[in-house]
Amino acid sequence: MIYHLIDWLQGMTDIPGAGLVKYLSVRAMCAAIVSLLVSLIVGKKIIGWLQKKQIGETIRDLGLEGQMQKKGTPTMGGVIIILATLVGALLFCNLTSIYPWMLIITTIWLGCLGFRDDYIKVFKHNKEGMSERGKLIGQFVLAFGIALTVCVAPSIDTHNLVTTIPFVKAHEFDYSWLSPFKGQFGVYCTWGIYMIMIILVILACSNGTNLTDGMDGLATGTSAIVVIVLGVFAWISGNVVNADYLNIMYIPGTGEIAIFLSAFAGALVGFLWYNSFPAQVFMGDTGSLAIGGIIGVSAVLIRKELLLPILCGVFFVESLSVLMQRGYFKYTKKKYGAGKRIFRMSPLHHHFQKANPEALLQWPKGVLPEAKIVSRFWIISIILGVMTLALLKVR
To answer: Whole-model pTM?
Structure first.
């Protein structure tokens, strides 16, 4: 809004320094600062309100160190992240571009879906919340809408379905290579494959972040690192000179995604102030579903979705640990009559926090403090982020 207000005022009068708002760098910094301040200032008031209304987390005793001390900690704090992000984005993004609107819709849609899940858990005292099927349907509807928009919107450059992939010449992967057909039917098949990939990426990111949200500051800090790296990619991809110099795919207009991600990063850092160990508030599904969705949609829009297994390696491994644990338990129960587990507990971060002598994997010995586990996961995420950036120079 400020971007458009300044643009409108410049048409009537000369405002000294107003031209700075046209620069992406200035708007990105302003968006990050505003969202950070909103997250810090408004977040404190929201946490106080949640405490007053006794909207706290209900905890099941799973034998984790320090777990029961978290009982009653305010939840649904993802509202803080969503509000702060939207304020920064709406103020400094160019709202004539379709890119910020796709991310705004993603934020609101998945935020509302997560809010409904948290509402059922907190107010209806149903710890299970929404059914897995219900959440997947809600996520799928959004993912399908995003995929369809990417394919048909004239302002989105999809003249060729090429994306970024490391280790190959020019870092390009054409989705038409996956189509078994040629000609016009092959074109339709390629579009179908691309839409399926977009849907899978958004679903995987949203649920992966949701599974990672199990320790104070874990999902928030890890997500902030991922968002910053995606913001760098969006910035470079939207600048024809920088994209050509670094041999990265040029995608017109993606600078606005960088502005949105700057606001998002500022909101996450502000929320981390309250969410770091020991947490004063939990984000709940209100925050985790929206965070993952924003990451997935952003990666798709800047054609970096195939880099996510590396960049979002923490989310990927967390999700994989759950799938492995469930699959192995069902297999052994069917074969031996008693289910066995690979990890002491899943998702993976709880494996380091719980003693279980019956699990197959017993490394490391002993139980680690929660703060140490979170810090090490942050470090791993930073390493993966740097690797993702560095891989684009490997051919």
So the answer is: 0.94
Q: What is the pLDDT of residue 160?
A: 72
SS3 172: strand
- DSSP symbol at 279: P
* Termini Cα distance of the chain: 42
Apex CA 61: angle with CA 372 and CA 44, to 5°?
Answer: 60
> Would you list the domain boundaries of the chain?
2-307
CB 77 within 8 A of CB 271: yes
Per DSSP, 162 falls in state E
**Peptide bond connecting 364 to the previous residue in cis, omega within 30 degrees of 0:** yes
Phi and psi torsions of 355, nearest 5°: -90, 130
Average pLDDT, the chain: 90
Angle between helices 183-212 and 313-336 (to 10 degrees): 90
Run of H or E residues at 164: strand 162-164
Q: Is 343 exposed, middle or buried (0-12, 13-18, 19+ CB in 10 A)?
A: buried
- Specify the DSSP element, H or E, that contains 173: strand 172-174
AA identity, residue 132: E
Q: Which of 315, 388, 325 is nearest to 361 (CA)?
A: 325
Query: At residue 17, does pLDDT exceed 60?
Result: no
Decide: helix, strand or coil at residue 72.
coil
Amino acid of residue 389: L
Token code pair at residue 118: 């948290």
Helices (H), 94-182: 98-123, 132-152
Q: For residues 198 and 202, what is the distance between their CA atoms, to the nearest angstrom?
A: 6
